Amino acid sequence: MDDVWAMLFAERKEFAAFLESLTTEQWDAQTLCSEWKVRDAASHVILGMTQSKGAFFKSFVMNGFNFNKSMSHDAREFGRRSPDVLLKEMREHLEDRSLPSGVKAPNLLGDTMVHQQDCRRPLAMPRLIPEDRLRVVLDAMKGVQPILGNKKRVAGLRLRATDMDWTWGEGAEVRGTGEALLMAMNGRAAAIDDLSGDGVAAFRARG
Questions:
Q1: How many Cβ atoms are within 10 Å of 2's Cβ, its own excluded?
Q2: What was the pLDDT predicted at 21?
Q3: Which helix (H) or strand (E) holds 116?
Q4: Which of these, 46, 52, 43, 93, lies nearest to 73 by C-alpha position?
């Protein structure tokens, strides 16, 4: 598990470095998450490091016991801060080992990775994700259910990465880079266009 934490710290540092490179306009760019700008996605990652269980539960109640609504609301509220403040907050907590309720370190690594890609893809600022890091996240996130719905999206399909040695499942095949498979299993429709195989139509229909 120490290896996973080291990967998470590295992922956070790379996300922070990416954010530092952005212009003011890019901080306000739309991400792959329809309700979030780049600043909101960054804020969500920061809250994953810093938000207390009490603060989360209060927001959960105030947002009608709806997990996704609560997460979206909190990210947008926190995201109103200036980029300098957000970056300072992220930098101060890069190596924190706190975990949100019910979340394990590999899934938090996955959440951080996916949201960094949510920002990078629309800005056409790709990166090469280390294979060992991506493998941990693919293994962890293929079965996440029910909030994210990943398990339902990949059921009955065989996923095969074309840029690394990673496969999973049985059924109609879906091929693509590890990053594209990760983003598609997390419901990012833009990534499905990067996939091929007999199982793509089923993947797309599941949203």
A1: 7
A2: 98
A3: helix 105-123
A4: 43
Three-state SS for 127?
Answer: coil
Owner of token pair 């947008």 = 76
Q: For the purposes of burial, counting CB atoms within 10 Å of the CB of 165, is it exposed (0-12), middle (13-18) or buried (19 or more)?
A: exposed
CB 109 within 8 A of CB 144: no
Domains in the chain, ordered, with CATH?
2-123 (1.20.120.450), 131-206 (3.30.1050)
Q: Which amino acid is at 32?
A: L
pLDDT per position as a tens digit, 78-134: 999 999 999 999 999 999 998 887 889 999 999 999 999 999 999 999 999 999 999
Distance CA 123, CA 101 (A): 32
CB 193 within 8 A of CB 203: no
170 burial level (CB within 10 Å; 0-12, 13-18, 19+): exposed
